[in-house]
């Protein structure tokens, strides 16, 4: 279990983006799954928290969904991971690890905004120049469940305690 937790944490820390799925609040698809691929960061390169942070705007349909129902899933594929790249394996192949984090999306508290800025802007420096009229703000996921698909044969459920205790591998 510790190795699986470390793999999940490593993937969360190495991921620059992920696919966030929400429950749609939009009239024509209300109640259906809705997804968006977004830039993420679990902290600056030298400070992994395991908690995904996001830079969001209310103009994004996903934010409207989250305002009605903050429950979401975040899938992080190993598409750029060492194994898949070295072995020229299709990122969708089960040999390439994937972790899915589920939980509640919440706005970052004023006390955490500086850390969220460091986390996001250190990984995505261009964000600093995004148009201000979009009224960007920071969110994070309060993780409730961690699911790791590693190799063939099913998904491993990782406890939050093991996940947050794990130390990600150095890049």
From TrEMBL:
Protein's UniProt keywords contain Signal: yes
CREG-like beta-barrel domain ranges (all copies): 5-165
Subcellular location: Secreted
InterPro entries reported in the protein's UniProt record: CREG, CREG_beta-barrel, Split_barrel_FMN-bd
Alphabetical keyword list: Glycoprotein, Secreted, Signal
One Gene Ontology cellular component: extracellular region
Matches recorded under SUPFAM superfamilies: FMN-binding split barrel
Superkingdom in the source lineage: Eukaryota
UniProt similarity note: Belongs to the CREG family.
Protein name, per record: Protein CREG2
Source organism (scientific name): Macaca mulatta
């Amino acid at each position: 279990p510790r190795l699986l937790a470390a793999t999940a944490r490593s993937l969360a820390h190495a991921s620059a983006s992920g696919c966030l799925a929400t429950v749609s609040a939009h009239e024509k698809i209300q109640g259906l799954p809705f997804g968006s691929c977004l830039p993420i960061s679990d902290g600056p390169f030298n400070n992994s928290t395991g908690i995904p942070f996001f830079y969001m705007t209310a103009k994004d349909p996903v934010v409207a969904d989250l305002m009605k129902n903050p429950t979401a899933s975040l899938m992080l594929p190993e598409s750029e991971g060492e194994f898949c790249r070295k072995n020229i394996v299709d990122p969708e192949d089960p040999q390439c690890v994937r972790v899915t984090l589920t939980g509640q999306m919440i706005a970052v508290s004023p006390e955490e905004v500086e850390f969220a800025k460091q986390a996001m802007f250190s990984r995505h420096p261009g964000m600093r120049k995004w148009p201000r009229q979009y009224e960007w703000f920071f969110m994070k996921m309060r993780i409730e469940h961690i699911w790791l698909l590693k190799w063939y044969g099913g998904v491993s459920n990782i406890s939050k305690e093991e996940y947050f205790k794990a130390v990600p591998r150095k890049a």
